[in-house]
Amino acid sequence: MSKDSRIATLNTVAESRKQDCLERTEKAISKLLKNHEKISFRSIARVACVSVSYLYKYPEIKERIQNLRQQQTKGIVQPPKYQTASEKSKQAIIEQFRNRIKILERERQEQVKQIQALTGRLYEVGQNQDLIERFKAENSRLNEENKQLHLLLNSIRSDSQLQINNMTQINSLELETNHHSHGIISDDLSQIISEIGIKLNKDLTQLIKSKSELEVNNALLVVKESLVLGNVRSKAGLFRKALENNWQPDESDQERKINTIKSAFSLWYDIAYSYGIVIGYREEEGTIMVQENTGKWNNFDDFSAKWTLEYLKRWQSSNKKH
Question: Is 0.85 surpassed by the pTM of this model?
Answer without folding.
Answer: no
